[in-house]
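> run fold CopG family transcriptional regulator
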Amino acid sequence: MPVISVSMPAELIDRLDSVAERHGYTGRSEVVREGSRVLLTEFEDDRPANQQLAGTVSVFSDFETQPIERELTALRHEYEDSIASITHSHVGDSCLDVLVLETARDELATVVGKLRAIDGVQTVEYSLVPLETTGV
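> ok
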């Protein structure tokens, strides 16, 4: 199996080691492989790629480390036809941004990926609801 090198904060490595120990993984590499599989397949399903979805995307970030308002504003402009709203709240020392989208699955996956790539973002969670196209 090829070996890759990945840089990450010590806190994240500690969390990987803890998950590996608590859940019986052979080590952090197995946890990283499993996480990679989940990430790579999360939008691979049998729904058509162009099916319209409504979704909420929650973005949790550390306010002190990296405010992400500029990146969210740029994303909102780039996907203005898909992002209905963004709400920003403070939760303790962190920020919680909630985006409401109405778009196709592939574009939603792209938005989620771009959010995850923003420096300072800790977690991105989402919930999707298919929008049925009816003749009504």
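The first helix runs from residue 10 to 23.
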